[in-house]
Write a structure and sequence with these properties.
The complex is a heterodimer of chains A (104) and B (322). With 104 residues, chain A is an alpha/beta fold. Chain A has five helices and five strands; from the N terminus they run βαβαββααβα. Chain B is built from nine helices and ten strands. In chain B, helix 5 packs antiparallel against helix 8 and helix 6 crosses helix 7. Classes of the chains: A alpha/beta (104), B alpha+beta (322).
């Protein structure tokens, strides 16, 4: 299992989407392709933006669906961080299956 | 370009500030001010500095400031954007405790550093700083990713101890919201573009619900919601349009969050002087419901997903009954 320690590169308030993108491309998507579990550890992180979490995980849901929901785990997330992660989870599930092609 | 700094340039009176604004000569900026007293929202400072960046410091001129409070402009760093030296001689001690002076952020690293550095300057308890970090984090990110501004984002904030409010202004001289939304949504004018950008799940980078791998179209909705729950003003000015979230009735304890900005108590206009860029201004009252940031985020999540569900229903294909 690979572990991402958010604080190490994104700091106490995680908002740097460049870092999120890097972890998405270099760890999350690669590990999910192998059906492996990825732990995202928010130890020492006091806050996070929705943009950061979206950049980190949204593509995983779109590409891997249930496998991403099963294999992504989050540790040491405080209440604020949990709410942001929940928000991204919920709106992604509401929007899965929507593509540019099926727009009116 | 001409603007006038008055004794009460707060968001409540933002239309008055706009009324004195002119972009007639786009090559130079003339700053006039009230002779006795100047009291400006940080957003007005961010806007003024952005215009100064646009014309270049050599082309900024101001009338002699006679108001005794004008030294505030020096303290906030406005004279760094002009060719003229500050007429004030004040000791620039650490700005800790009250304000974040005008700062230009040009990249991700600069943004992260700014957010790390700014919170100690406001001297606030940690639990009160979440909405501030969140707001500046998302708004500056918007500028860096979507505005195509060559000057970056101009950011400034001020804590008002008496009212216990942090006022924030973020401005850029980029392509503006309408052009940013135009590729996929074709808004018919500037105010429509702002309102589209405020809707949860609508991103300028795609038609798709849920956004792209990098953008969800959620940022401005979150910020508007923070202002709404805190019962504070929130203003966006881009192109010829201004959208201003007004205060809801004090007696309403749990303000309802509206996914459609038309449903919010607001004022709007589409005939302001045409500003090539975007200004976002927000007040955050620290003793308000926004203090419980976790609960606020839960409310935003519920209203957000409900909005997506409703929009999805609209798109459902209906069965063909014969």
């Amino acid at each position: 299992m690979k572990k991402i320690i958010v604080y190490q590169e994104a700091g106490e308030f995680a908002e740097n989407k460049d870092v999120a993108r890097k972890w998405r491309e270099e760890i999350i998507l690669l590990e999910l392709a192998k059906n492996k579990v990825v732990e995202v550890d928010f130890v020492n992180v006091t806050g996070v933006t929705q943009s950061f979490v979206h950049a980190l995980v949204a593509e995983a849901f779109r590409r891997y669906g249930d496998r991403a929901f099963d294999n992504l785990i989050f540790s040491n997330a405080n209440g604020v961080v949990r709410e942001i992660i929940r928000t991204v989870y919920h709106y992604m599930q509401e929007s899965l299956g929507d593509t540019d092609e099926n727009r009116p | 370009m001409e603007l006038y700094l008055s004794p009460s340039d707060y968001l409540r009176n933002f239309d008055r500030f706009i009324g004195e604004l002119s972009f007639a000569d786009p090559k130079k900026l003339h700053i006039a001010s009230h002779p006795k007293w100047i009291n400006v929202h940080p957003a007005v400072l961010a806007f003024t500095a952005t215009l100064a960046l646009t014309v270049g410091r050599e082309h900024v001129e101001f009338d002699a400031f006679t108001a005794s409070s004008a030294h505030y402009l020096d303290r906030m760093g406005l004279f760094n954007f002009t060719k003229n030296k500050s007429p004030y001689h004040i000791a620039h001690n650490e700005p800790a405790g009250r304000f974040i002076p005008l700062t230009i952020i040009k990249d991700s690293a600069g943004q992260s550093q700014f957010i790390t550095d700014m919170i100690p300057l406001l001297h606030l308890p940690p639990e009160k700083t979440d909405p501030i970090k969140y707001t500046i984090g998302e708004l500056v990110r918007n500028v860096l990713e979507h505005s195509y501004s060559t000057s970056g984002a101009v950011v400034v904030a001020q804590y008002y101890r008496k009212s216990n409010i942090v006022r924030i202004g973020i401005c850029d001289n980029g392509i503006g919201i309408r052009q940013s939304m135009n590729k996929f949504w074709h808004p018919k004018n500037d105010i429509d573009a702002i309102k589209l950008a405020l809707m949860p799940g609508i991103s300028g980078t795609t038609h798709r619900e849920g956004g792209t791998e990098d953008n969800a179209g959620a940022g401005l909705y979150f910020i508007k919601s923070i202002a709404q729950v805190a019962r504070n003003y929130f203003v966006i000015y881009s192109g010829s349009a201004i959208y201003k979230l007004l205060l809801h009735d004090k007696r309403i304890k749990n303000a309802r969050l509206h996914p459609d900005p038309n449903d919010d108590r607001h004022s709007e206009r589409n005939n302001a002087p045409n500003f090539h860029g975007t200004l976002v201004a927000i007040d955050i009252a620290l003793d308000s419901d926004a203090g419980d940031f976790e609960k606020l985020l839960g409310d935003i999540r519920e209203s957000y997903t409900l909005a997506l569900r409703e929009r999805k229903k609209i798109k459902y294909r209906e069965p063909r009954f014969v």
